[in-house]
TrEMBL record, chain A:
Residues 6-260 form the ABC transporter domain. This is ATP-binding cassette domain-containing protein. It comes from the Bacteria. It comes from Neoroseomonas soli. GO terms for biological process: D-alanine transmembrane transport; L-alanine transport; L-isoleucine import across plasma membrane; L-valine import across plasma membrane. Keywords: Amino-acid transport, ATP-binding, Nucleotide-binding, Transport. Belongs to the ABC transporter superfamily. One of its GO terms (molecular function) is L-phenylalanine transmembrane transporter activity. One of its GO terms (cellular component) is plasma membrane. InterPro entries: AAA+_ATPase, ABC_AA/LPS_Transport, ABC_transporter-like_ATP-bd, BCA_ABC_TP_C, P-loop_NTPase. PANTHER family: CONSERVED COMPONENT OF ABC TRANSPORTER FOR NATURAL AMINO ACIDS-RELATED, HIGH-AFFINITY BRANCHED-CHAIN AMINO ACID TRANSPORT ATP-BINDING PROTEIN LIVG. SMART domains: AAA.
UniProtKB/TrEMBL annotation, chain B:
It comes from Neoroseomonas soli. This is Branched-chain amino acid ABC transporter permease LivH. Signal peptide: none annotated. Belongs to the binding-protein-dependent transport system permease family. LivHM subfamily. GO terms for cellular component: plasma membrane. The keyword Transport applies.
Amino acid sequence: MAEPILEAGALTMRFGGLTAVDAVSFTAMRGDITAIIGPNGAGKTTMFNCITGFYRPTGGALRLFRDGTPVDLHRLPGHRIARAGVARTFQNIRLFPGMTALENLLVAQHVTLMAATGFGIGALLGAPGYRRAEKAAIAKARHWLEATGLVDRADDPAAALPYGQQRRLEIARAMCTDPLLLCLDEPAAGLNPRESEELSALLRSIRDGGCSLLLIEHDMGVVMRISDRVVVLDHGRKIADGTPAEVRADARVIAAYLGEGDEE
Amino acid sequence: MAYALQQLINGISLGMIYGLIAVGYTMVYGIIGMINFAHGDVFMIGAFVALISLVMLVSGGIMDGPAAILIVLLVSMCVTALYGWTVERIAYRPLRGSFRLAPLISAIGMSIVLQNYMQVAQGARVKPINPVLPGGVTVLEADAFVVQFSYMQMLIIAVTLAVLAIFTWLVTRTPLGRAMRACEQDRKMASLLGIDTDRTISLTFVIGAALAAVAGTMYLLRYGVIDFYIGFLAGVKAFTAAVLGGIGSLPGAVLGGLLIGLIETFWSAYFSVQYKDVAAFSILAITLIFMPTGLLGRAEVEKV
């Protein structure tokens, strides 16, 4: 159980003179939901962007443990990070707007499909291997459409879905890459209480399915309800790390959130 | 009436050639937002490869007729695709992270390189060939005017439609096509899903070049003369077609190609041949004033 999935060692990201993430170290455990919280500008999204290959960290190391073997994420190009098993969603949703919901999920399975078809040549010739792979891909897409309650929207363009459904579709798409670690950037932003309740249930079921989760979230209700661990950042530094109950009681966390008594 | 029908046939077969080249422009624009000015010259390379393989087959006495055309077409597609891949690899990919104008200038340079290369390699003189597929069907005879639908025109239309059908299927139904559309809509996101975007872009160039090769082969067979400079005007016309149809839109490119072909043909037939290019480009200018996104283009919606 206490096996790590992701380990950040002195992760640092500088933009010119600004240090957005300053030597942050933490470990996320396999099968856990780890939340990263902090006030605005604390460096949460920057850290996410480093983990998912959007940015290349200025310093430090990021290791993903794949069946116990460490993979150095900070050295991989973007598409390799995804193949190593990291998937993410965005704060401002980034679906492929012109494609249907189903196609969005199929794109996410591109790597498996291409491998099964001899890099697309099999698809051109209609090889049986390709048909089988395509069928399996559609079955998996359907599974996630069901899990996110979007089956009846499968053939609608992603851009036509309402906001809450787009959020769920993005999670479904990320899950279609078969990730070891799913990174969610403010998944509850803009959801109403009922929707965020549904979201919590969905995230818990994803965790129970064996995928580890890392999430940034402002909605403390969601964070406290579902997280196994909480890492708190402020001004690019880690100020607390523990169970939701521990973090909630931490004086520095309270100070950072309420802006009381700057001890520095 | 009969005269107009003849022009319609001529216009469509010419427009099909423009359409095939225009698809290459629009695909590359869609995926990396760049106008590949060397694309017209890739079309020229396609015509030359077709010429060389045709001469080898026919003059070498190996084979003749439709079988020869099929082989010439395939050879030209493969070799030209290789050119398309190479151009992207050496002239555009190294500049991908650079400022927007850099690959554009590189494309103009590449266009000049390809032209001069062909001029040096094959000579500057125009190259004629003997008609490969002479004859045709008389569709209509009226007022002493004979409407001819030549076998060559039928071949152009049939081959173009077949190639476009395969291409449409490729883009809409296969994983490769989905990856291309994904890269077009959000390249960074596509790479986050594990898609090798560099390879997808390379394949886009390869497919575009193969379509240009089909156009080059058809051009050679239809008109029977080519030189190293044909890529320029054909390229500009096809680019016009892509813009007219709405750049980034694949059906738009084909529609634009057909329209440019028809405008040019009808203008030459009823007004003056000298001004046919003026007519085509004027239509472009007018369309852009009133429909800046082209006929089938989507308006860019600014994200808030």
